Amino acid sequence: MRISTSTIYQSAGTRISDLQASVNKISQQVSSGRRVLTPADDPIASARALVISQSDSLNTQFATNRQAAKNNLSASESVLGNVTEALHNIKTLIVKAGNGTYTDTERGFIAQELQGNLDQLFGHANATDGTGNYLFSGFNSTTAPYTKKAGGATYNGDLGQRFIQADSSRQIPLSGPGTEIFENIRTAPGQFNVQPNPSNAGLAVAAASINVPTSANLTGNNYEVAFDNLGTSFTVTNKTTGTVVVPLTPYVSGAPITFDGIDLSVTNAVGPPVSAPGPGDKYTVQPGNQNIFETVTDIINALNLPAGNASAKKELTAALNQGNNNVDKSLNNVLTARAKLGTSLKEIEDLDSEGDAKSVAFKQDLSALLDLDYAKALTELSQQQVTLQAAQQSFVKTSELSLFSYIR
């Protein structure tokens, strides 16, 4: 068998090229620290590593979400802490205002302090998370939750509850809508809270309900039904705006009077003896569900009214008692909201610990699949380099074997 010179060169060149490629590949593995540089190096490990890498990326995104949730919840909890302090200050001022020795002027000073606390509550209710999103607007995070109005405030957000995906199977609720925190102060089991004046002489019973056909006219304001000096006629005044909504009207027991979306009736008490309204009797009509802004505004208005006689002092005492009870209910709402926030923050801490453990496990799995065994790789690199050198030297010697070499 005869081997041509070209065959020798081709065979040697191919072998040397293969050895150089092997040396280069091992050198790249050593420099990168990775055993698998392309999917062709280990298709099964590459496929498995892709799945683990995606899971690790998702776990990292959940960690980012949890940090965002933690920032939001911490901001909300801080704001509600300030709200709690403001409500405690309001309670202290209410108790202080009940001092029977205070003059109208001194009660006016307390009303000014309450106004300052009310302004603080507005600021807290319209707090943001630091990025311009309002905390207590529900889904409408770009809309300020509350705007001031005569007699209280109007809620501009919605009832939505925002959530954030904190783990593959868990969504964490963020701060709730303002209605859950600053509203839901039940002053009566029904739609309206109707109370007789403490100084009433008669025992007539007043009741109010929503007039469905005109319910769009509801204002949420406070009203007062006032009988004349004979107890035979009455007027209805919007106490929030000072407007008379029902002019002097003859009294008929049980006859309904409709105004501003409300059906109002005053009925003689069943005897014996039957008791009609007395001269100068009054009844207040308030929404059965208030917000804290309406409550504090009502207290301020009550403190700004002169209380120089026994009847006025009774009205003031009743207003302060009701206001104090309403503030207690508002405090319960705030403390309940703070408890929910604390629970969410604790859950995030637990999920963070679990996420950190997953991250370590994912990286360990990836290392086992892709990382290089340096001792083995360096040994193989040294072996391949020696083999390449030997092949090169062997080719040099072989290429010189010819008849002409002997002739020389």
End-to-end CA span: 26 Å
CATH topology of the largest domain: f41 fragment of flagellin, N-terminal domain
- Major sheet summary line: 5 strands, antiparallel
Beta-strand share of residues: 15-25%
SS class: alpha+beta
CATH architecture of the largest domain: Up-down Bundle
Protein name: Flagellar hook-associated protein FlgL
Domain Flagellin C-terminal: 326-406
Domain Flagellin N-terminal: 3-140
InterPro entries: Flagell_FlgL, Flagellin, Flagellin_C, Flagellin_N
SSE topology sketch:
Blueprint: H1 5-32, H2 43-97, H3 104-125, E1 146-149, E2 152-155, E3 163-167, E4 170-173, H4 178-182, E5 185-186, E6 192-196, E7 205-210, E8 223-227, E9 233-238, E10 243-250, E11 257-259, E12 262-267, E13 282-287, E14 289-290, H5 292-303, H6 310-370, H7 374-399, H8 403-407
Antiparallel strand pairs: 1-2, 3-4, 5-14, 6-13, 7-12, 8-9, 8-13, 9-10, 11-12
Explain this structure to me?
There is one protein chain. With 408 residues, the chain is α+β, with helices and mostly antiparallel strands. The protein folds into 2 domains: 34-187 and 293-371, f41 fragment of flagellin, N-terminal domain (Up-down Bundle); 192-287, no CATH class. The chain has helices at residues 5-32, 43-97, 104-125, 178-182, 292-303, 310-370, 374-399, 403-407, and strands spanning 146-149, 152-155, 163-167, 170-173, 185-186, 192-196, 205-210, 223-227, 233-238, 243-250, 257-259, 262-267, 282-287, 289-290. It has a 5-stranded antiparallel beta sheet, with no helix packed on it. Strands 7-12-11 form a 3-stranded antiparallel beta sheet, with no helix packed on it. Strands 1-2 form a two-stranded antiparallel sheet. The radius of gyration is 41 Å and the shape is rod-shaped. The relative contact order is 0.15.
